[in-house]
């Protein structure tokens, strides 16, 4: 079921991205030769006007063929050359290339806004909306990799009901009281709710997990459900999307900075195998949690595509910037070679990350 959900999510995210390129190219008067759902071999096709719409066998996204995106003799000097991507202004080219990123962010905004309309998990400590949060309870917001909490099976989204240690009991815990209770005991029983199930697990706090006190490796917040009317949901969705996008961007920049100084932790990255597991966990928590996860993945896809790396949209935008500065196009052989090398490096990175995902599963 998790794999099936992952395929659907991946298809929606990639189709939204490619649809952005498609719409931008059409609006700019660029010829679009094909818009495909899935990847070949082709199952069905229909030509409408100048564009072929196709349905393909592998349902993991889609693609768009924009005339002149990869320059050749026809797009450079053929009868339809004026409508090719390569002969459009740099501003138009940048808009077409960047539209996929924009559509992924728009998709995230829509999904988060729908989440707020349906009722989204939200902090009761928030200054603006905290007073309107319903059913607030102490909630696990993050679990550190390799921590006692992760080993015990505690997950983000679990509601903490009570903590027990021998004769000591902490019911209706708050962030500060829970932290104090955890740090003052060597072993405790952790009672929590996941979905509609109430569970208990024994956890042993450790020194060194966080600075200054014994801990089990979780972040907590007093959170509940925030439900907003349409106009407020759209506004809150926009703010949340902007906040997540900025946090993702700064996090990726920090990660690449750590690569250069030899401190990057690849175990913090999840590839397809890891995401399948995350999707499965989110689906058990309910539709709204799954919706939020898809929005976050869409934001990550947008930010990663923005990186100035060959084979990504950011790399293509970087080449367009270089051409605009130098006043002449880069030789197609150079861009094609750079994109090919970039694609191979991305595949290698994906292999490394997937290996890490599998290793973490086997370790568990």
How would you explain this protein's 3D organization?
With 364 residues, the chain is an alpha+beta fold. It has two domains: 2-116 and 294-363, no CATH class; 130-226, PDZ domain (Pdz3 Domain). It contains ten helices and eleven strands. The protein has helices at 2-27, 73-77, 90-118, 148-152, 175-183, 230-260, 272-285, 287-306, 313-326, 332-363, and strands at residues 32-48, 51-66, 120-123, 134-143, 159-165, 168-171, 188-194, 197-203, 206-210, 213-215, 218-226. The mean pLDDT is 84.
Annotation keywords:
364 residues, alpha+beta, Pdz3 Domain, 10 helices, 51% helix, elongated
Helix content: 40-55%
State the shape: elongated
Helix/sheet category: alpha+beta
**Any idea what the radius of gyration is?**
24 Å
Approximately what portion of the residues adopt beta-strand conformation? 15-25%
Number of strands: 11
How would you characterize the largest beta sheet? 4 strands, antiparallel
The number of domains: 2
Mean pLDDT reading = 84
Physical arrangement of strands within the biggest beta sheet: 6-5-7-8
Head-to-tail CA distance between termini:
20 Å
Low-confidence stretches: none
SSE order, one letter for each helix or strand: HEEHHEEHEEHEEEEEHHHHH
Number of helices: 10
Organism: Candidatus Yonathbacteria bacterium RIFCSPLOWO2_01_FULL_47_33b
Membrane topology: Multi-pass membrane protein
Cofactor: Zn(2+)
Protein name: PDZ domain-containing protein
How would you sum up this structure in a few lines?
It is built from ten helices and eleven strands. The chain is of the alpha+beta class and 364 residues long.
